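Hello Y.,

Per our agreement to keep a running log of every chain we model this quarter, I'm adding this entry. I've kept the format consistent with earlier entries: sequence first, then predicted structure.
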Amino acid sequence: MTSPGPALAAVRLTRRFATGAGVTDVSLGIAPREIVALVGLNGAGKTTLMRLLLGMLRPTEGTAVLLGQTLAKIPQRTWSNIGHAIETSPGYPDLTVRRNLEISARLRGVRARQAAISVVVDEFDIGGYLSQNVRTLSMGNRQRAGLAAALVHDPRVIVLDEPTNALDPSGVIRLRESLLRRSADGAAILVSSHHLDEVARFADRILVMNRGRLIGELPPHTPELEHVLFETLRSDDAERGL
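Predicted structure for the entry above:
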């Protein structure tokens, strides 16, 4: 039996900026039921890569592929299978949490909207905040509400940029359990993070990014993972003469 191809892929993606920062010749593939963590220092290009994969930025060279189709050829309905939170939590700050979830579900064509909303409300423990405007929430609860909105439609591809930011330990555990459940149900998941100890708990692979390039992969259960990461970054800088 032939194994399915990647649900999310980059094929030699490059994006150059006038400042010189960006992404250079990045290729990767994430299969259904796989969680991949993307790690690196600030400015490594993680967010830029995620934006390229989702069509938020146009590449200078290369191609992004979602669910077997290049971005230029993806029909509108396919986007209802994508869930993402990039840089800031999605949502309308002057609307209630409930209204944000309803809008997110409606835009993605969810039919049983109230049932879907109930699932993510329980998943992220935000039932006590449904009637509050997003703007009035703490940073942590705003993050929970944003993640719930990004995942309310059970997407087949999930891309999350630093999703544990502002979350308390309970929120981090809830997010971890959510991603593991969704992966088991068939989703392909890409998560960027600064928290190596956390991503090592749930990622199948950890990709290392430095100065716009993918430079290696670390097994999640590597002993002294943080030390190995920084040695990997240092060695890459030394090879480039930096």
